[in-house]
Amino acid sequence: MSTANEMYAQSIDECAGIIKAIGHKRTVLVQGHMGTGKSSILKILAKELPTHTPCYFDCTTKDLGDITIPKLNVLEGEDYVTYAVNEELGMHLKGPITMMVDEYGKTNPAVKTALARPMYERSLGSYTLHPDSIVFATTNLGAEGVGDLIPPHGRNRITVIKMRKSTNMEFIEWGISNDVEPEILGWSKDNPQAFASFEDVKDPEENPYIYHPSAPRASFVTPRSLEAASDVLKEGRVAGLSEASIIACLMGTIGDRAAMDLMAFVKLADQLPSLESIKQDPKTAKVPDSAAAVCMVVYRTLASLEKEWINSWMDYLPRLDKEAQGMFANGVRAPRYSKQSLVMTNKKFTEWALENNYMFAADKK
């Protein structure tokens, strides 16, 4: 699909940047595919705006009485009513806040009406937000058919932007720093179609991994369900679940086809050298035969690397092919890689980087 709306769809980081820039003046509504991390925008903003108190308001769990309740007051013999507000909205806080109204499109009309003033005017009852406060909302795409409805007059009072799905490489970058199992990351690298938008797929049978409103699947691949599949693998191994039990769980998490394909990657784990062998004897530790297994070694290392064995890894790295070495370098250079400074200040890494400068030069073209 090449509509203007699709052409200008924003990444999750770009959405956060827009909200940070204009959210104190205009309410931004982020529309995006299910399971793509829209709720994580609040976490991104919380890191970038430490002076703001993050406030999360889940519309799917609220009814009209959950917004405000009457409070009777008596003053010099005169009775009057004020309204106590739900603390989740953060209206009672004195300093600036970042208010996220999640799943706005799914809430009932009465709640939408009650949220009008905080979303449009930054006020509710006798409360007014700090002028630096940011208000934004999220909802699913209407085309997904999961009940997200916003009337035209409501849309006209806010700024609506579309958030695109993350690419497989963006998910991998996130997964490396968030303890996602290397098999999940390796499978994601080899299956970019699992991150495709249903809007680009006319026939649901052409892509057996993703959700498609024309032929809804009970379970399917999203970044959220892949993270869940990582937990299934990790905790299933710890608990000693059988392969059949793990497959059953994966089928109910990411769908039948994705589960069976992923298990083929899981079986490649036998080709991986143990971390201990790399730490203790990097020059003789096993180098996998398949490219997929090499990929998993790199992703596993990026996720688990510690200061004590960076030198050992840097002795092992040149034994891998140049593509795998470049994959490691790009992982280190990713803006949000949590161990970036740890690696980049290592002497052996800087020496290797200088010797392989052509990798970085090619990346800038």
Features:
365 residues, alpha/beta, 2 domains, two-stranded antiparallel sheet, 18 helices, 43% helix, elongated
Give the SSE layout.
Layout: H1 4-7, H2 12-22, E1 28-32, H3 41-48, E2 53-58, E3 68-75, E4 78-85, E5 97-102, H4 109-114, H5 116-120, E6 123-124, E7 127-128, E8 134-140, H6 152-155, E9 159-163, H7 168-176, H8 182-190, H9 223-239, H10 243-254, H11 256-267, H12 275-280, H13 291-304, H14 310-316, H15 322-333, H16 340-344, H17 347-355, H18 357-363
Parallel strand pairs: 1-8, 1-9, 2-5, 5-8
Antiparallel strand pairs: 3-4, 6-7
Helix pairs in contact: 2-3, 7-8, 8-11, 8-13, 9-10, 10-11, 13-15, 14-17, 17-18
Short description:
The protein has 365 residues and is α/β, with parallel strands linked by helices. The chain is built from 18 helices and 9 strands.
Report the span from N to C terminus: 28 Å
Query: Which structural class fits the helix and strand makeup?
Result: alpha/beta
- The domain tally reads 2
Helix content: 40-55%
Helical segment tally?
18
Radius of gyration: 24 Å
Q: Estimate the mean pLDDT confidence.
A: 90
For the biggest sheet, the summary is: 5 strands, parallel
| Strand line-up in the sheet with most strands | 2-5-8-1-9
What is the global morphology? elongated
How many β-strands, per DSSP? 9
Protein model, in words:
The chain is α/β, with parallel strands linked by helices and 365 residues long. It folds into two domains: 4-163, Rossmann fold, CATH 3.40.50.300; 168-363, no CATH class. The chain contains 18 helices and nine strands. The strands form three sheets. A five-stranded parallel sheet has the order 2-5-8-1-9, covered by helices on one side. Helix 8 (182-190) crosses helix 11 (256-267) and helix 10 (243-254) crosses helix 11 (256-267). The longest helix is centred in the middle third of the chain and has 17 residues, at 223-239. The relative contact order is 0.10.
